[in-house]
Specification:
Elements (H helix, E strand, L loop, with lengths): L5 H14 L12 H9 L7 E3 L8 H10 L8 E5 L4 H10 L2 E4 L4 H15 L1
Parallel strand pairs: 1-2, 2-3
Helix pairs in contact: 1-5
Length: 121
């Protein structure tokens, strides 16, 4: 999960990991650069939950870097963001596997993650 808001990461990590009885492990990244560092250290996730509005490197910029790298281009991206304008929603749905507006119920997030993982496997 890539989000510059540590409380958002904590909430999703705690809820999803407990809600799924440890089926999911959420690896937090507080910035696009930290996400790239994790990937460069061979920590490759099954899916990335990606915030759009972040300082230094936006979610859109990180998305481009991920898709430009042959080793990472197939990692499914789910945009999870407070940005609710139609342009972002359309772009997020077109570019990523899903676009989810914050706040979201954890059972709904789990359902949508499972749907994306099933369709990408």
């Amino acid at each position: 999960m890539v989000d510059d808001e540590s409380d958002q990461i904590f909430t999703v990590k705690t809820a999803l990991e407990s809600f799924t009885n440890g089926e999911y492990e959420i690896v937090p990244a507080n910035s696009g650069q930290q996400c790239l560092d994790l990937l460069n250290n061979n920590i490759i996730p099954d899916l990335i939950l990606l915030d759009i509005m972040m300082p230094q490197m936006s979610g859109w910029e990180l998305f481009d870097k991920l898709k430009d790298n042959p080793e990472w281009k197939d990692i499914p991206i789910v945009f999870l963001t407070a940005r609710t304008d139609r342009i972002a929603e359309n772009a997020g749905e077109f570019l990523g596997e899903d676009y989810i507006e914050k706040p979201i119920e954890m059972d709904e997030l789990k359902r949508r993650i499972e749907k994306v993982l099933a369709s990408c496997s």
